[in-house]
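Lecture notes, part 5. Sequence design as translation. It can be helpful to think of inverse folding as translation between two languages: the language of shapes and the language of residues. The source text, in structure tokens, appears below.
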């Protein structure tokens, strides 16, 4: 199913690439993305140059969260009508732009969520946050599903654990005993910032 979804997404971007050329600035280059959150759906890019010519070189540039400044990600060639397509990805929040000669497109910001897991017993639930950075001292939330809304019922201070492979690990314990229900752990945006956006674990019934 994931392969089929990826193929359909790629086909959709290629189908729209030619149409994008009509929206290029009169003397510049454009860039668009199929979504602005990096997840299981491939992050596909498209745009166009104002010359409308095929064979033009467009450089996709990326700005990673942290000390790494803008740098070339890859170069692509325009097709008929001056349209171009590409792809991108990242492990932390990042920004993208396109460069063609002296023209630079607008900037697109892409958010990345940390991975959260909720496990344990109703009297001692734990949250594990896996990412490329630790979140010591930050606060995670335990939420219960009421109808169609999530309500915060407990909070836990996160502490650093040794990395596992390439991932940093941060854990927290919710010591409040909770009634039976459907729960999830959440790392709010204020705790995930600046290099991640808010993330949540899968829902678990206890």
């Amino acid at each position: 199913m994931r392969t089929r979804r990826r193929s359909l997404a790629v086909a959709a971007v290629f189908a729209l690439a030619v149409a994008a050329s009509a929206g290029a600035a009169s003397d510049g280059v454009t860039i668009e993305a199929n979504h602005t959150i990096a997840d299981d759906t491939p992050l596909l890019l498209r745009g166009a140059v104002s010359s409308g010519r095929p064979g033009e070189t467009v450089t996709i540039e990326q700005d990673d969260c942290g000390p790494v400044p803008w740098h070339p990600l890859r170069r692509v060639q325009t097709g008929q009508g001056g349209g171009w397509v590409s792809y991108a990805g990242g492990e932390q929040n990042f920004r993208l732009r396109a460069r063609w000669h002296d023209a630079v497109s607008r900037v697109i910001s892409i958010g990345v969520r940390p991975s959260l897991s909720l496990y344990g017993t109703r009297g001692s639930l734990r949250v594990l946050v896996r990412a490329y950075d630790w979140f010591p001292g930050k606060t995670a939330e335990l939420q219960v599903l009421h109808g169609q809304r999530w309500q915060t019922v407990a909070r836990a201070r996160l502490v650093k654990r040794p990395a596992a492979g390439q991932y940093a690990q941060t854990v927290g314990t919710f010591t409040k005993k909770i009634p039976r229900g459907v729960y999830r752990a959440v790392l709010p945006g204020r705790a995930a910032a600046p290099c991640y956006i808010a993330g949540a674990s899968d829902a678990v019934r206890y």
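The translated text above is only one of many valid answers, since several sequences can fold into similar shapes. The CA atoms of residues 32 and 81 lie 16 Å apart.
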